[in-house]
Amino acid sequence: MISLDQVLLLEQKVESAVERITQLQAENDALRSKCSELTNALSSKTEQLSSFEQDQGRIENGILKALDRLNSIENSVLKAGSESASAAVKPAAEKEQPKQAVEVPHTQNAASAAPVQNIPRTPAAGTEEKKSESSGQFDIF
Question: Long-range contacts: 81-84, Cβ < 8 Å, 24+?
């Protein structure tokens, strides 16, 4: 037969099991709550990431459009510079045709009279700038 000691021992085991189940249920509720919070945070961060990716795409497109515009401006400036440089070269070539030497009248002091030489012209400041433009280098500052 079952003795009183066995019944009391069984009662203690049942009470400890009930307490443990209660503790586990509380822990389970806390973990479910934490899981729900983390799931919501993950959803929020995922939405934020998606928004950032869209913004990044728009920013990249804006930068690419700006670079394309700068390239087209650079190309038009280079084209205009090369056209004006070629137009400036034609008159300069006409001016550089051999000139006739000017005769200096003979004077008594021949040592003081120096022969006239064709001195090459130095390019004007604007021509140097056009040369640097045609080489593809610009000083933007």
Answer: 81/130, 81/133, 81/134, 82/133, 82/134, 84/130
d(CA 102, CA 114): 11
CA dist., res. 50 & res. 140, Å (int): 38
- Alpha-carbon distance of 85 to 133, in angstroms, equals 9
Q: For 117-128, how does the pLDDT look when each residue is reduced to its tens digit (9 = 90+)? A: 555 555 444 444
In the three-class reduction of DSSP (H, G, I as helix; E, B as strand; rest coil), residue 137 is classed as coil
Q: Is 7 exposed, middle or buried (0-12, 13-18, 19+ CB in 10 A)?
A: exposed
Q: What is the pTM of this model?
A: 0.43
Q: Provide DSSP, 58-124.
A: HHHHHHHHHHHHHHHHHHHHHHHHHHHHHHHHHHHHHHTSPPPPPPPPP-S-TTTPPPP--PPPPPP
Token pair, residue 23, equals 């503790």
CA–CA dist 115, 113 (Å, integer): 7
Tens-place pLDDT, residues 17-50: 999 999 999 999 999 999 999 999 999 999 999 9
Residue 53 corresponds to which tokens in the numbers above? 């990716």
